[in-house]
Amino acid sequence: MGDRAEIVETGSRWAKSARIVIDAPAQRIFDVLADPAAHAMFDGSDTLQGLVSGPDRLFLGAHFGMGMRIRLPYRTDNTVVEFEDGRLIAWCHFYRHRWRYELEQLDDGSRTSVTETFDGRTSLFPPGLLLINALANNQVAVAKSLVRLKHVVETAQVAP
Question: Residue 56 belongs to a domain with what CATH number?
Answer without folding.
Answer: 3.30.530.20
